[in-house]
Amino acid sequence: MSNPNKNLKKNRVDFNKNESINYNHISDSPYDLFNSWLEEAFLVDKDNANAFVLSTVSKDSLPSSRVVLLRGLSNDGLIFFTNYNSHKSLELSNNNNVSVNFFWPELEKQVRIKGAVCKISDQESDDYFDSRPVDSQLGAILSNQSEDIPLGYDLSEKLVRLRSDLNNRKIDRPEYWGGYLIKANYFEFWQGRPSRLHDRLCYTFINGLWKKSRKSP
Ligand SMILES: Cc1cc2nc3c(=O)[nH]c(=O)nc-3n(C[C@H](O)[C@H](O)[C@H](O)COP(=O)(O)O)c2cc1C
Predict the structure, then answer these.
(1) What is the pLDDT of residues 24-58, one digit of tens each?
(2) Which of 53, 156, 176, 205 reaches 20 to 30 Å from 11, CA-CA?
(3) What distance in Å separates the CA atoms of residue 110 and residue 122, rounded to the nearest whole number?
């Protein structure tokens, strides 16, 4: 039987790329640095740079995390798309506070974000849905995301049938699928440094302005 335990204690990364945050030259808006780090991340991992961990909380204050994809970014916040009936969406309808985590190992960088979500407009969701590949559109229609289904349920067979029923007709966005905007009120930029002396730059949104601070590693 495999046993990963021997690796858990042994493997060590010393974060020795020698990148750092220049605290003397930081923009007033966290979005400037976030944009530039995200751009860098796409250069080293174009397929996964926009993947992030999204955490929500239940009515009983129990946290829950999963990976979703960043699909829009502006100074208003971050946009992702999902099923509005999913587990995450049910939690968000009760408590719209989220925690976000991007980790780009090749850059030894992490960004933590906190904020509150709201649904984006139907038009924005339509526009994004229309831009998706047909099979992704069909997948959104076929999946009652987060609901229990029988172990032997054949989703691929349903996809083939739906594809043939549609016969190349345009697919409308189901009203239970769409985007959320995360309005951020906190960013923390973490840059790995040798000897665990990492850089941490924080931005907190207070009275309409971003307040900058630094944290001990
Ligand atoms: C790389 C990656 C990207 C994903 N992107 C999305 C996404 O953009 N939207 C989404 O709803 N689920 C996405 N998922 C699936 C979610 O992690 C999760 O399984 C799903 O949203 C159901 O979560 P929930 O039951 O907590 O609502 C992605 C998973 C991975 C591993």
Answers:
(1) 999 999 999 999 999 999 999 999 999 999 999 99
(2) 53
(3) 32
Structure tokens that stand for 139 in this block: 């997948």
With a 6 Å cutoff on the Cβ, whether 88 touches ligand 1 is yes
* Candidate from 66, 93, 144 with most ligand 1 atoms within 8 A of CB, to mutate: 66
* pLDDT (0 to 100) of residue 63: 98
What's the chain's length in residues?
217
Place of tokens 């985590």: 101
What pLDDT sits at residue 103? 98
Q: Which CATH class is domain 22-133+174-214?
A: mainly beta
Is pLDDT of 213 > 90? yes
Question: Is 196 annotated as catalytic?
Answer: yes
pLDDT at 207: 97
Q: Which of 58, 108, 116, 109 is CA-nearest to residue 87?
A: 58
81 Cα: distance to centroid of ligand 1 (angstroms): 9
Element at 142 (helix H, strand E): helix 134-142
